Amino acid sequence: MIGEAGLLAAAGSADLSDAGSIAACVAGVRTAIGDIAAAAWQEFLEITDIAALEADPQAAADA
Predict the structure, then answer these.
(1) Is the distance from CB of 29 to CB of 13 less than 8 angstroms?
(2) For a tag on the chain, would you pick the N or C end, based on fewer CB atoms within 10 A?
(3) Which residues of 18-43 are buried (b: 16+ CB within 10 A; e: fewer)?
(4) What is the mean pLDDT of each run of 10 residues along the chain (63 residues)?
(5) pTM for the structure as a whole
(6) CA quadruple 38, 44, 45, 51: dihedral positive or negative?
């Protein structure tokens, strides 16, 4: 999905005749999505009681 998002962004903003331009756009999108995912994971860890999840498999599955 990340690769497809990068290609979609490239289609709208990269010079499609330049492989380097496409690659740079895709790399930028991958980096942005990775940064967003990392921030969301960090936020999840900050608001989650990990010990409670470890003690309750159903709570962990729900999380």
Answers:
(1) no
(2) N
(3) eeeebeebbeebeeebeeeeeeeeee
(4) 68 80 83 89 89 85 80
(5) 0.63
(6) negative
